[in-house]
Amino acid sequence: MRNPSLDRLPRLAAALFVLAALPGLARAATFVVNVGGNGYTAFVDAASGTSTTTIHVGDTVQWMWLSGPHSTSSGTCTSDGYYGVCTPSGQWESGQQSAGASFSHTFGTAGNFNYYCSVHQAMMQGMVKVQAVTAAPPAAAFRFSPTGPIVGTTVRFVDTSTGSPTSWAWDFGDGQVASVQNPSHSFAAAGNYTVTLSATNAGGTNAASQSVTVTAGGQTACVAGASTLCLSNGRFRVTAQWQKPDGSSGSGNAIPLTADSGYFWFFDPSNIELITKVLNACGINSDYWVFGAALTNVKVTVDVLDTSNGVSEQYINPLGTAFAPIQDTAAFPTCP
After folding, report:
1. Which domain holds residue 242?
2. 176, 151 Cβ separation under 8 angstroms
3. CA distances from residue 310 to 103, 113, 148, 234, 262 in whole angstroms, order as listed
4. Same domain, yes or no: 235 and 315
5. Do both 126 and 187 map to the same domain?
6. What is the pTM of this model?
């Protein structure tokens, strides 16, 4: 039989804080657990409404005692009893706590941890259920095009996160948000905007931010020169900058080929380093396309400016890396 004194346990309330202790895990939820009182020896998790609190390996549980003396321990017992019948396992042990005291424990292994009160030497009706973390949070990342947008231009954002996110939250820095994977957005005013992507999977949430500079735009003229190509019938101004491992740098020498294409040499007129093309594809996907290829591993920065409105795009090949082809079929959504 249950000792009658157990039914006279004073009402006990504890706040259970689940903290994301694993790196990158964004699961900072707070749970309230009411324990004992009114003849009950069970705690009730406010989040689930049950006597089971579910967390993950690496999470921390903090008990804050509002009355006492009582304790939080993990133990086993073959039958309910009092004084000496039950023995705690020692897997987690707060010791005797009084009102106003607190106790924290970080769970490093998965398992089911029953609630045992050492002070009353009796099992309580409650369990902390610790689940294994089965997935790591994603590494959030994204790119956008064009990289130099003007007011009112459609900017396309592309999620490049790794870790298989299952949901996305975008904050464009101008009061607007989106929850699709690859949104499009236009900015109503010139300025610098911090765009943030929060990517989430079963392991948690990770965020990445980039600055987007939006200008008022305006028409300029493309003047072909020693370091400038004017492509797509003169609408787009293309330049290329190079940098060698010794830190020296300079502008590529521009040689036009057709109305849409040209190339640059860096160190010797007989050595073609970079060939590029801007193609009018307005009849295909309402964009101007940018293509480029090079036989070099120096740092190359290619700048393409739409002189009709001031929208710009930039492509960078890192120093010491074989040049990756440029195949941007969504470079300038500025047709006609």
Report:
1. 229-332
2. no
3. 61, 63, 8, 14, 21
4. yes
5. no
6. 0.55
Average pLDDT over residues 229-257: 96
What is the mean pLDDT of the segment spanning 11-19? 35
Classify each residue of 4-35 as buried b or exposed e, where b means 16 or more C-beta atoms within 10 Å of its C-beta: eebeebeebbbbbbbbbebeebebeeebebbb
Q: Is the pLDDT of residue 173 over 60?
A: yes
Q: Which of 175, 190, 214 is the last residue of a domain?
A: 214
Question: Dihedrals φ, ψ of 63, to 5°?
Answer: -100, 130
Same-domain check for residues 108 and 31: yes
Amino acid identity at 38: N
Identity of the residue numbered 302: V
Helix (H) or strand (E) holding 158: strand 155-159
Q: What is the pLDDT of residue 175?
A: 93
- One domain, residues 267 and 204: no
Q: What is the DSSP letter of 19?
A: B
Pair 178, 185: CB distance under 8 Å: yes
H or E element: which one contains 129? strand 122-131
- Per-residue confidence (pLDDT) for residue 85, from 0 to 100: 56
Overall domain count for the chain: 3
The predicted pLDDT at position 42 comes to 64
| 40 plus 122 within the same structural domain | yes
DSSP-based three-state secondary structure for 282: helix
**231-234 long-range Cβ contacts below 8 angstroms, 24+ apart:** 231/259, 231/260, 231/261, 231/262, 231/276, 231/277, 231/278, 232/259, 232/260, 232/278, 232/279, 232/280, 232/288, 233/259, 233/260, 233/280, 234/307
